[in-house]
Amino acid sequence: MAIHYPNGKAYESGKQTAEDAVNYGGRGMTLEAELNASNQYYRAAKRAVIYKKPTPIQIVKVDYPQRSQAVIKEAYFKTPSTTDYNGVYQGYYIDFDAKETKNKQSFPLKNFHPHQIKHLNACLEQGGICFALIRFVSLNRLFVYPVSDLNRWWTESLNNGRKSIPLKAIEAAGFELHPKLQPLIPYLDGVDWLIKTKRGTQNG
Predict the structure, then answer these.
(1) What is the pLDDT of residues 164-184, one digit of tens each?
(2) Residues making up the binding site
(3) Best label site of 28, 33, 43, 134, fewest CB within 10 Å?
(4) Which residues are annotated as part of the binding site for Mg(2+)?
């Protein structure tokens, strides 16, 4: 299926191969699959209600190989995507994006888009708990990283500063997660830390 961005540019799916799939905790699942499973666990346990956001598309071409089936052949993204996940936890609005890098020493800021940073800041201003979930694939390490800290590096990059966040900075300002049987990614541990330290809030 051909999907295009609002500007008409063709979308490259960036599908993960078996080699790219991260063997996090020995399970060999992609980050998205692990987060979806974790969210399902949190909902079933009534700890939080958090979902992956659907991406709105405009369908422009459909084939009907059979009368009872429809195959989408071409579509366009209606609007640029914001962040990956949002929901509610203990009365707090939660909004975050999940990113990965194969780098070992730093996280490239080009993995974020300006509209995503703008969206996270808008949620932050409304009292939401906002963060980035950052995975270093080669190191098999995963962090909850506050948007307040992400903002500082983002602003510096716009002023001819470095274009990546050093791993040491993420270690210092973030919360490292460790895999469990259930949930696969216990990111609410990081959210509790953000709430306690106020690092994930507007005043963090």
Answers:
(1) 999 999 999 999 999 888 999
(2) 82, 84, 97, 116
(3) 28
(4) 82, 84, 97, 116
